[in-house]
Amino acid sequence: MRRLATLLVAATLAHAGAARADALLLDQAQQAIDDVDYATARKLATKALAEGALPRAELERAHRLLGESAAALGDDAAAREHFTRWLVLAPDAALAPGASPKIAGPFARARAAATQLGAFTADAAVARERDRVVVTIVGADPLAMVTGMRIRVGDGTEVSVADRRAVPAAADAAAVTVTVALVDR
Q1: Distance between CA 106 and CA 89 in Å, rounded?
Q2: Which of 47, 74, 169, 181 could form a disulfide with 150 if both were Cys (CB 3.0 to 4.6 A apart)?
Q3: Please, what's the b/e burial string for 110-131 (b: 16 or more CB within 10 A of its CB; e: otherwise)?
């Protein structure tokens, strides 16, 4: 009779060390917005987003900052795109009271688009099968933001997968820890 394995799943969007550095960039971007330096804010938030190591709350924040800075710079298309991503990730998101019409306009149009799309609920489901683990991305991803996964099984071996399903090997009948990070583009 086979012993049941213990699985631990931690679905995240990033590694903690890199996330702290990117959070600092987002803090600087927020300060630039507070200082009415929207071009610098856009550059800093874009850099943080490009690093690809933001946890979900910081990813939401990056899209908010990018939406605000793009709107303030008159780039309504980019503002709507980032606001839509923010609202799909955080459907209850709202601008600060008293936001200027230049920012509130693209945000309102993004809210209408995001309402039609629905919320982001993607997560990782993990199942154990004898000598392997089956990891599948489940839930809704209306903007197709998730492009794959980083999976760490047991001994720290990490594999990147550009797919919605992966089947890494795991010692038969052994307890195994599985960490899954959803990767966005």
Answers
A1: 17
A2: 181
A3: bbeebeeeeebebbbebebeee
Its pTM stands at 0.80
DSSP for 7-59?
Answer: EEEEEESS-HHHHHHHHHHHHHHHHHHHTT-HHHHHHHHHHHHHHT---HHHH
Q: Where are the beta strands (DSSP E) in the chain?
A: 7-12, 123-129, 132-138, 146-153, 157-161, 165-166, 176-184
Gap between the Cα atoms of 69 and 78, Å rounded: 9
Element (H, E) at 94: none
